[in-house]
Design brief:
heterodimer, A: alpha+beta, ABC transporter involved in vitamin B12 uptake, BtuC, 5 strands, B: alpha/beta, Rossmann fold, 6-stranded mixed beta sheet, 4-stranded antiparallel beta sheet, transport (chain A), Metal ABC transporter permease (chain A)
């Protein structure tokens, strides 16, 4: 089967649609999660959702919907524990994670369904996604994207500085719970794509990639959605290509590895940008001791002279062989002082 | 009790505040009149930051009554009249944000849900950045600013909402002198425009000439309320010295024996 034929089979087309939408929606929510410094929240919800899936398998109802209910409950508990800010908060969260995972495996055992069925949810099984599941995934993805982009001014303000947002009259608690619920929903839609144990990677890694390069929240949000889309579809295609060689590569792990590869590709650029910005950070605006440059200075510093220009109060210093040169105009013409 | 006229921006009567069960503020009265510039001073732990957080509704009162613009806090919804500048350390997120975006969130008190910025919003954001002298930095990331520049951005965010009452929590802490001067200039301009300003400060520095009235907190109570004091006065009068109990003779003797400058430590 050629690659083109592979993409024309219905299960692959369903997988592509799911990967496309989840790849956009999960990092959109993830941006707010990272902004709130809760990068591991997705993992926590993912662990709790395992119990939800198991309950669905046990009671022979849709695992998607039981996972939605349990994941939202878990996310709200995590948010409440966080808001209380108790010192033992992280221990409480850890116990919630373990309880979710252990409970899920335990209940699956009660149900008598083998571990293989649960594994579909733990590591993803985007190729077996049914039409009904695809419709749910599409609807929830669109809702997540619309809320994350449409309410971005409010969600940004609440996640950036909750105290300020409260004094500005925003319903901070409502928005915090909303972010937790959005996270729970994105965990559930991503569970068929990358699996509950890797779900957080699709929420966090695209944000980590783009924030190496961006300076604004808006660019980070949109960039993360683009990076998530590329990793998600790219990983699926990679898995499909590798499967043609006879390997049995699951799309979930390959999506996560493609995302991580993206991070390590971008990291050197980010490191270079950070170094460049640090070099150009303004010097403190104190009046320095002025000392004329000793040797003759035939070179004229300017915009395109190649020396790093750093703001220093009301003028610019040029970094010249490790010295800070500032131009002054004296009686005998222009000269350079060392600052 | 007489009803408060609506143009008294802040009135706190017999305010008690407990944080996780520990009494922090006790029986604090504070009235701020329109156009006043009030400095809340005192040592670390004296309750001055707790007080300003209480005035904006972040700490609930366990007893007493707080009115903003003549309305009890529970019934006060006109938050666009209030600008709050929190301590710098609390105001950061885990992803990049530009100066413009942070200041733009100051317009949320005027914006409706799901509406883009209008030109009036943009004008207010630009004007706020100009007041604090940060207009050239609008597209920088806040993470790349110095402490003093970040502080000015947080003030611009509060100003973008065009508040009548501005409350600032330690805006000068950890800010170098040129930035303190820039800050004093910005606040001076607001004061001239008739804004009411309440500011928490450990030391006033270049802000001193602006202050109309000083309130010194000690140990959760108001220790002084009157004409401005110099920084030296606040320390010399022992407002920030440890509180000595009468029955603790040895502590009192020790405190008396220490020369004043050392008590500040």
């Amino acid at each position: 089967m050629t690659l083109l034929e592979l993409f024309s089979v219905p299960f692959m087309q369903r997988a592509l649609i799911a990967a496309f939408l989840v790849g956009i929606a999960a990092p959109a929510v993830g941006t707010y999660i990272v902004q709130r410094r809760l990068a591991l929240m997705g993992d926590g919800i993912g662990h709790v959702a395992v119990t939800g899936v198991a309950i669905g398998l046990w009671t022979q109802t849709s695992p998607t919907w039981t996972a939605v209910v349990v994941a939202i409950a878990g996310a709200v508990v995590i948010e409440v524990v966080r808001e209380r800010g108790h010192a033992e908060g992280d221990v409480a969260l850890a116990m919630l994670f373990y309880g979710g995972l252990a409970g899920g495996v335990f209940v699956t055992g009660l149900a008598g369904t083998g571990a293989s069925r649960l594994q579909e949810f733990l590591f993803g099984s985007i190729l077996t996604i049914s039409v009904d599941d695809l419709l749910v995934t599409m609807a929830l993805s669109v809702v997540l994207i619309v809320i994350c982009v449409g309410l971005s001014p409010q969600l940004f303000a609440v996640s950036q500085d909750a105290d300020y947002a409260k004094v500005a009259g925003l319903p901070v608690r409502f928005y915090s719970i909303l972010v937790a619920v959005l996270a729970a929903l994105s965990v559930v839609i991503a569970m068929r794509t990358v699996g509950l144990l890797l779900v957080s990677a699709l929420m966090v890694v695209p944000v980590a990639i783009v924030q190496q390069l961006t300076r604004s929240f808006r660019m980070t949000l949109l960039g993360a959605m683009g990076a998530g889309l590329a990793a998600s579809v790219g990983g699926l295609v990679l898995a499909a290509v590798l499967s043609r060689t006879g390997a049995n590569v699951q799309p979930g792990p390959s999506i996560v590895l493609v995302a991580l590869a993206g991070f390590f590709l971008v990291w050197p650029i980010g490191a270079w940008l950070r170094r460049r910005r640090a070099l150009r950070a303004p010097f403190p605006e104190t009046s320095p001791e002025e000392k004329p440059v000793d040797e003759a200075h035939p070179h004229h510093h300017g915009e395109k002279c190649g020396h790093v220009a750093v703001e220093h109060g009301d003028h610019v210093d040029y970094i010249h062989d490790g010295h800070r040169h500032a131009a002054h105009v004296g009686a005998e013409g222009e000269h350079y002082d060392e600052h | 009790m007489n009803p408060v006229p609506a143009d008294v921006p802040v009135q706190l009567l017999h305010g008690d505040v407990a944080l996780s069960g520990r009494p922090v503020l006790r029986d604090v009265d504070l009235t701020v009149k329109r156009g006043e510039f009030v400095a809340l001073m005192g040592a670390n732990g004296s309750g001055k930051s707790t007080l300003v957080r209480t005035l904006v509704g972040l700490n609930p009162l366990s007893a007493g009554r707080l009115e903003l613009f003549g309305r009890a806090l529970a019934g006060f919804h006109d938050w666009s009249r209030v600008g709050y500048v929190p301590q710098r350390s609390t105001a950061t997120g885990g992803v990049p944000a530009s100066v413009w975006e942070v200041v733009a969130s100051g317009r949320l008190t005027h914006r409706k849900l799901l509406r883009p910025l209008r030109s009036a919003d943009r004008a207010a954001i630009r004007a706020a950045l100009e007041v604090v002298g940060m207009d050239a930095y609008a597209h920088r990331g806040v993470a790349q600013l110095s402490g003093g520049q970040h502080q000015r951005v947080l003030i611009a965010r509060a100003l973008a909402g065009r508040p009548e009452l501005l409350l600032l929590d330690e805006p000068t802490a950890g800010v170098d002198l040129p930035n303190q001067q820039a800050l004093a200039e910005a606040l001076g301009r607001l004061k001239a425009d008739g804004a009411t300003i309440v500011l928490v400060a450990h030391e006033l520095g270049p802000l001193a000439p602006l202050v109309d009235r000083a309130v010194v907190m000690r140990d959760g109570r108001k220790a002084y309320d009157g004409p401005p004091l110099s920084d030296a006065d606040v320390h010399a009068q022992g407002f920030d010295a440890a509180h000595v109990h009468c029955d603790d003779a040895s502590a009192r003797a020790a405190n008396a024996a220490v020369p004043t400058p050392l008590k500040e430590l």
